[in-house]
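Field guide to reading this record: the first block holds the primary sequence, the second block holds the structure written as discrete tokens, and the final block holds curator observations. Each block starts with its own label. This record concerns Elongation factor 1-alpha-like 3, catalogued under organism Zalophus californianus.

BLOCK 1 — SEQUENCE
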Amino acid sequence: MAKREGGSFKYAWVLDKLKAERERGITIDISPWKFETRKYYVTITDAPGHRDFIKNRIIGTSQADCAALIVAAGVGEFEAGISKNEQTHERALLAYTLGVKQLIVGVNKMDSTEPLYNQKRYEEIVKEVSTYLKKIGYNPDRVALVPISGWNGDNMLEPSADMLWFKGWKVTRNDGNASGTTLLEALDCILPPTRPTDKPLHLPLQDVYKTGGIGTVPVGRVETDVLKPGMGSPLLQSMLQLK
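BLOCK 2 — STRUCTURE
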């Protein structure tokens, strides 16, 4: 892997698959990735943060049942992201505006604070993030805030031996409280939305592809009704006839 393609961007290659993304070191298109927890099959969507690709960010965010807001705890990094009109503000506000009411906050790069894994730094960030989330409409009591290090795996899958001061996160909800220590546990506490399966089919399109040997393939998320393999759909038939 070339130096320009490595460094701090090398793990972004897992999701940034377009040639332009890898050359420029930024996310351009939304990129889904699936994994399994104890309770759920989870599909995460890596949405671009660059302002030039706001359309793709809106598409990716609008399809989410829960948003994971990752903020950097590194010296100067958090302050740059949380300042007015910067990415932390924009992404949280966009998620809430698009109806994503469940939120998890990961305070990342705890391994780069001064001193390392600093409790005071984490508490400062939690206070400021919670204040902003409350302003835009989120209830901080319903948000799991987790200090993590994605690089070292701290509090990702298992509790970190370097952050024994962290006694865990708690969320208070009308439909059941939840608590835990890791980011994985926070994902397992997401409440699945109730989808109106008795309503007419509503499938907002993300994109339409033309695939050799198959034809036109519309892609989107089913919001109402149910689609199963082999089912016919008047909506899809009509759309294909129009094309």
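BLOCK 3 — OBSERVATIONS
Helices lie at 19-24, 54-62, 77-82, 87-97, 119-136, 183-188, 234-242.
Residues 205-242 form one domain.
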